Amino acid sequence: MRSSLLFFLVFFTALPAYAQREVWLEALGKPQNYDFEPTVTSVETFETPEFRAELFLQQNSPDTRQKVLLLKPLDLKPGEKRPGFVVPFYDADRMCGYDLATKKRMPPGREYAEFGRQLVRQGFVVACVEPYPYNLLADPDGTAQKQGLRWWGRAAEKLLADQPTWTGMGKLTADTRLAIDFLAAQDCVDAKRLGIAGHSLGGKMSFYAGSLDDRISLIWASDFGMRWEDTNWDAPWYWGPEKIASFQKTGLEHSSLLALRPVTFILIAGEADGEQTRPQLKRAQQLNPRLEIHLFNHATGHQPTKETVEKSLELIKEKFGVN
């Protein structure tokens, strides 16, 4: 494995920038007969003591739409432009910290993983977006979230049956980049100052979309498992076991994805990520010395801690010039 990794890193470094990107785009795959206009429809607006919000449905395939929840700071003035963040996760509720059905505050215990709420309170405009398993299949009785991984398995089966030349990770990345399109088009957003942030699954989505999208200058990810062996990358809704086996055989790893562009990368580690992640981060830096990498390892479990989130937010505010 070590020799194949060394061979790949030498080979990858020798490739021109466009070819390095193509390695990952080819791995993600492309859908067939997938032309559509990503129209956006406003569903509702509401206000909490911490932000103003508007829920949208955005076309994300010829026949499906994804939820995008736009969060605006309470002190945002008419005509003002703020830096923006896309925040993907299982649902927008847990990223904004409020139950979208009742508009009530979520129970305490995971407030530091509420990246959307944390960022809008710091003055950023935020777009929270859901992943494909919750909009690919019809869910008339609202049981998708309760079915857990069974729903993800069903959605992956349908996706790969409909689009055998694509991957689950390709779909997740494409949908996240649609949310970046949505956010960049908002009148209150400075499209030249965009970041992306996510915890766990949202970290995976943020890492891929942020690494591949030239509009993103900062990626904030929490405990998504950067190494193939540290989380369930082989699940069919991500890559599947065959792809992961191929990547491991050839030495393809996430250091080369992160190295595609000179972004600021902030990683909160705790369980799926940790000290074992440092060598990949170091290799990414060797591939692209213009990367700025920060690792905050609390080593206390999967949920980010108050200290690591506060450190991250201070750094993010500094990078985007937010007081």
Q: Which key features would you list for this structure?
A:
alpha/beta, Rossmann fold, nine-stranded mixed beta sheet, 13 helices, 40% helix, globular
Please summarize what this structure is.
The chain is α/β, with parallel strands linked by helices and about 325 residues long. Helices cover about 40% and strands about 20% of the residues.
What would you say this structure looks like, in words?
The protein is an alpha/beta fold. The protein is 40% helix and 21% strand. It is built from 13 helices and nine strands. The protein has a nine-stranded mixed beta sheet with strand order 1-2-3-5-4-6-7-8-9, with helices on both faces. Helix 9 links the parallel strand 6 (189-199) and strand 7 (216-222). The termini are far apart. The model has no long low-confidence stretch (mean pLDDT 93).
Q: How would you characterize the largest beta sheet?
A: 9 strands, mixed
N-to-C series of helices and strands:
HHEEEEHHEHHHHEHEHHEHEH
Q: How are the strands of the biggest sheet laid out side by side?
A: 1-2-3-5-4-6-7-8-9
Which class best fits the helix and strand makeup?
alpha/beta
Helix content: 25-40%
Low-confidence stretches: none
Question: What Rg, in angstroms, do the CA atoms define?
Answer: 19 Å
Please report the first level of CATH classification, the CATH class: Alpha Beta
pLDDT averaged residue by residue: 93
CATH superfamily: Alpha/Beta hydrolase fold, catalytic domain
What's the overall geometry?
globular
CATH architecture identity: 3-Layer(aba) Sandwich
Number of E-state strands: 9
Number of helices: 13
Fraction of residues in β-strands: 15-25%
**In the residues, how many domains can be counted?**
1
Span between termini: 47 Å
Question: Looking at CATH, which topology would you report?
Answer: Rossmann fold
